[in-house]
What we know:
Blueprint: E1 2-4, E2 10-17, E3 26-32, E4 35-41, H1 53-56, H2 58-62, E5 72-73, E6 86-87, H3 90-108, E7 113-117, H4 129-139, E8 144-145, H5 153-158, H6 160-163, E9 169-170, E10 177-181, H7 185-188, H8 190-201, E11 205-209, E12 222-224, H9 231-244, H10 250-256, E13 262-264, E14 285-288, E15 292-296, E16 301-302, E17 315-317, E18 320-324, H11 325-333, H12 338-345, H13 349-361, E19 365-369, H14 371-374, H15 379-391, E20 402-403, H16 421-424, E21 442-443, H17 445-454, E22 462-466, H18 470-473, H19 477-486, E23 489-494, E24 506-509, E25 518-521, H20 527-530, E26 532-536, H21 549-559, H22 571-579, H23 586-590, E27 596-597, E28 610-611, E29 614-615, H24 630-634, E30 656-660, H25 675-678, E31 685-688, H26 690-695, E32 703-707, E33 712-719, E34 727-730, E35 777-783, E36 795-806, E37 809-816, E38 830-835, E39 844-851, E40 862-867, H27 882-889, E41 896-903, E42 916-921, H28 926-938, E43 944-950, H29 959-968, E44 972-978, E45 993-994, H30 999-1002, E46 1012-1016, H31 1019-1032, E47 1039-1042, E48 1060-1064, E49 1069-1073, ...
Parallel strand pairs: 7-8, 7-22, 8-21, 10-11, 10-19, 11-12, 22-23, 23-24, 30-34, 31-33, 42-43, 42-46, 43-44, 44-45, 46-47, 48-54
Antiparallel strand pairs: 1-2, 2-3, 3-4, 5-6, 5-24, 9-20, 13-18, 14-15, 15-16, 17-18, 25-26, 26-27, 28-29, 30-35, 31-34, 32-33, 32-35, 36-37, 36-41, 37-40, 38-39, 38-41, 39-40, 48-49, 50-52, 50-54, 51-53
Amino acid sequence: MIRATSTSEQSLLKTGFCALCRSRCGARFEVSGGRLVAAYPEPSHPTGSALCTKGRAAPEIVADPERILTPLRRTKPKGSEDAGWEPIGWDEALDDIAGRLGAIRAQSGAEAVAFGVTTPSGTPMSDSIDWVERFIRGFGSPNTIYGTELCNWHKDFAHAFTTGSGILYPDYRNTETILLWGFNPSAVWLDQATQIAAAKARGARIIAVDPRAAGYARGADHWLKLRPGSDLPLAMGLLRQLIERRGYDEVFVRRWTNAALLVRADSGAFLRAEDIGETGRTGAYVAWNGAPVFYDAGRRSFDADAAGLLLRGRFVVAGIECRPAFDHLCEAVQAYSPEHVARMTGVAPEAQNKAAELLSASRSVAYYCWTGVGQHRHATQTDRAIALLVALKGRHDAPGGNVAFTKVPTNPANGAELLTPEFTSRAIGYGERPIGPAAMGWVRALDVYRAILDAVPYKVRGLVSFGANFAVSQAGTDLAVDALEKLEFHVHCDRLMTPTAQFADYILPANTPWEREALRVGFEVSQEAESLVQLRQAVVPSAGESRSDTDIVFALATRLGMADAFFGGDVDAARNWQLAPAGLNVAQLRAAPEGISLPQRQRHRKYAEETEGGYCGFATDTGLIEVYSDLLRRHGQPPVPRIVGDIPGPDRDFPLLLTTAKSPYYCHSQYRSIPSLRKRAPQPQVRLHPDAAALYDLEHGDTVRLCTEAGEVRMQLACDRSLDPGTAVADYGFWQANSKLRLPGYDPFSNKGANFNRLISLSEADPVSGALQHRSTRCAVRPLEEGAQAWRGFRPARVIEHERIAEDCMRVGFAVEGRDNLPDYAPGQHIVLRIAAPEGGVPVTRCYSLVGSARDKSRNSYIITVRRVAAPTGRSDLSPGRASTLIHDHLHLGSKVELQAPKGRFTLPLEPSRPIVMVAGGIGITPFLCYLETLASSGSPARVHLVYANRNGDSHAYRDRLRAFGKLLKGFSMVSLYDAPAPSDRQGPDFDRIGRIELADLFPDDLGATPEVYHCGPPPMMRAVEAMLEKAGHPEELIHSETFGAPLPGQSAKLPEGPFTVEFRRSGKTLTWSRGAGTLLDFAEKAGLEMASGCRAGQCESCAVRIIQGKTQPISDEFPANPELCLTCSTVPASDLVLDG
């Protein structure tokens, strides 16, 4: 599709899909002048109903100036301050890399080379993963550092201990009840979030299990707010209640689970036919209905009607004491009464009972769980318990449960046929965890570090990484540094220099997903989606010399003797082979960039389909869903879910339980350098309940030390009323600086950095998978002495200056009691002022920018300027601004108030790298006045330009002082605008022009480089400036704004009652909202309006709508207030409202 742009150029829209996460959302990409300029959802695609902020940041990711664009080779020893990177040609680099890898393989075996691969579920590695795995396995190495023990393994492989497969896809379209356990689709799988919204709208009920009020937990019918790491006892308690309430499908349980199979009391093994003298039935399992009933696992069938099989009791069969597998499960869950579970988890008995009642009564339950379950020491047993909780409902692969869609047939490319027992038995960690990830050749970074350093079980000499930043994304950071510095040979493929890449000998530049083709067969979320085959086209050419991971492994494979397996290096030939069973080829797919649908027939309950002599059954030892896993028993693990060891208990030194979660704005440790994303989550935070923060004498915004037994880091404290007072939630993945936003990076190898994984102990791990306790570690949050704020909270202060400087503008100075010398601040920062209400009641609290120089060694006061806020013209029924009225009319010299120390993120650079343009309206001049005073005091040569708009001379604050900066700062210029000058105002001496701000005012000819633009003023002015800059194509990351208003109500604050009228202008409808109508999105949809939406959690921003008139209020203090834009999924009206929707 081609469309005209605002210039003479035409823009081209290219169809494809986003590769940044598991959702793989259908998208359209706009290209203009050979550049990617925008990304949009593609509604015709089965996953294209929305596109999140990461997906929309595609142009910035492609244009990221920090990208590596040519192969680099180290020329100085590891450990040197400067690696001496030199550019090198691709052929020379690949020839040398292949030669050295081949030499290590010949001398020490292929296992002496380990590989690192980033997750295909949360990064664009999904484009290349099959061919990268084929390369690794073809090379002969059983050692791939995947991090899967922390990500996919439990839901995809531990799950198979129960059902014989990974977790199937939830049938949200048909289910009655949705169970989300440790899974926030709004942040990690947008299309699931969209499907859940549709299910909820038609009446499906939601149970969310999460320590945080994240995503659907906030609006769930039942939110079970458990303590981090206590998932297993909660699942056991719900299992007990499901069984006691007879909420399971007894027919299904008898016939299609191994619940009725007898287990020997003496050995814990299943009773077999030969054990009781039935040698003609050797290998058959035994059940009991008053007499032995035999089950043939090969045929998946009983020799009698399963309806009469007994599930409980003790029986003696041929002298052998036995019990049914189900009886073992009942015994295991018996101790988990609601009261006992409440003590272990923090979930009240009543909340447990209501959730259990819903689960029991529901005819169908669809569920999903992910990393929230998988990052604990009991992860495997927890997955078993949750899988059984749902499996007992009998809706496996059935409408309304979790279903297996029929896939388009292809030739698998990942080399799984090479995973023979001999091959995987050489994997590092296989000896300790033989049924864990090592059985697939996936190893822990921690174990590879030890193999590098200590040659246990053998020496690892080489490492080839594809985007894996495990020095930051996994635990054992100090061990990683030691190992990577001592590693003999290291190759790293990535977009940019990461903390892991900096140790490499070669860095190969990987391109972005918008610069390469990628084949996707099936999109997972429905039968329609699974039937779609799409070859995503390259949207723009690869920058520099960057290449795809696919191209890199094909080139290496042909140099390492794998040319046949890689089709002579011909990627098209390889894909044609892959597609052959489907009857497709790449030429057909290139001609249809929207993809080709090959409709497949969906079949339910495939386990019950007849085969020759039997039934399909399940891919487990018994061919049934395994209530009792003999596989686990044989490997020394509990065969039914049980807690082995302790759930973390109270600790005086580390009183809080620490967890973490994926940010919706980043791909794990990537993209902090992207301005539009970093603006949304600018710095690493640890979140606490306000009561917990107060207990440790901490406040929202403080920089704190986050400590565990393993280490400590530094983060900003954020208070969150939704958390349990014993829970801390910290961000992970921060290391990158953001030069465009002037936000710092964080040393991942230092206690003064923010690397969450420095906090994780290496001693406690899940015995099957090796997962560490990333989401259930004991911690403490402590004050930071160095660089702490001058004081915490409010301190008494008195007014020492109170002077009118312009019409309705008051300059007010404050001295802080007990402080003769006050700390400096950054230009643009503000103080928080609290004033007692003269009539009593709740004090008034507001933020005000500081004026005066930000640098003053003898500072003894803080100064602000406040304009009186009158009632709106023609609205005498409305009150004037309460705070400004108090400051103007009630404060006087000596008045007592309270202040917080200076803070704020709207700061201007004292040593700018590019010109600075400031746009002020009225009293919005205050942060810029502070900036100019500070520059003047240092004699700065910076090029700064001010555009200042006022009504007339009476409202023109600091006119004489601003004019003086023309002499004090040689790089200063100013445009002064009046839109309604008074008769006494003189154009020229007093102001420059009559009218509103125009684009030409912002950019004088002598600016040179593209400037940073800062603006502060009334919302209409700020909206006009934003629109003007957007139309001019000014880079978003170079635009900064500041607004102040009344404090955001906390989560516990009462939402407005209404009624308010809401006009949806584009839709031509005006409706009346009241509190019971819910969010603006819910309200609009119930009224039949079609509104854009995605995550329903205020994170993807697909639902953003411009506010034309009126005010809104976020439903939680987690969401920032914005006077110009509202996220309809997380916002309600706070007045009569006009929306551009």
